[in-house]
């Protein structure tokens, strides 16, 4: 995310917003934001939103996510807004919306739903 110059622009309990400026590093062949970049941004926004409900005792790892691309991501910037739908003891369910910002106007380009594993802090690392 640092390599793409993504910025954590807001983090509140159960929610997170990340912005990403347009650059050659994040485009596809038509010059739009690449779908993989959109998915990565949505995954991060949902994961950080989940962490606001778990820290400092636990963290989380993505178990799965589903993303619907609803419009081409044409613009100067992407904004991903993640929120927690349900935080349980072993799983957290989040959603995220990703907007392309063009000339100051936001257009919805993707919707994601995600499930994350709750990982207690200090858990052994898997080899």
From TrEMBL:
Record keywords, A-Z: Hydrolase
InterPro entries reported for this sequence: ACOT13, HotDog_dom_sf, PAAI_dom, Thioestr_dom
Record's keyword annotation contains Hydrolase: yes
Domain Thioesterase positions: 30-104
GO function term, MF aspect, one: fatty acyl-CoA hydrolase activity
NCBIfam families for the chain: unchar_dom_1 (TIGR00369)
Similarity section: Belongs to the thioesterase PaaI family.
Name this protein carries in UniProt: PaaI family thioesterase
Protein species of origin: Undibacterium parvum
Lineage: Bacteria, Pseudomonadati, Pseudomonadota, Betaproteobacteria, Burkholderiales
């Amino acid at each position: 995310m640092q390599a793409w110059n993504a910025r954590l622009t807001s983090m509140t309990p159960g929610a997170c917003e990340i912005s990403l400026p347009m650059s050659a590093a994040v485009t596809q062949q038509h010059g739009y934001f690449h779908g993989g970049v959109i998915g990565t941004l949505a995954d991060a926004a949902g994961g950080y939103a989940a962490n606001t409900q778990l820290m400092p005792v636990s963290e989380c790892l993505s178990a799965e996510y589903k993303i619907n691309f609803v419009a081409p991501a044409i613009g100067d910037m992407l904004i991903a807004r993640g929120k927690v739908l349900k935080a349980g003891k072993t799983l957290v369910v989040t959603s995220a919306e990703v907007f392309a910002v063009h000339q100051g106007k936001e257009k919805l380009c993707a919707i994601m739903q995600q499930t994350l594993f709750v990982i207690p802090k200090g858990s052994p690392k898997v080899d």
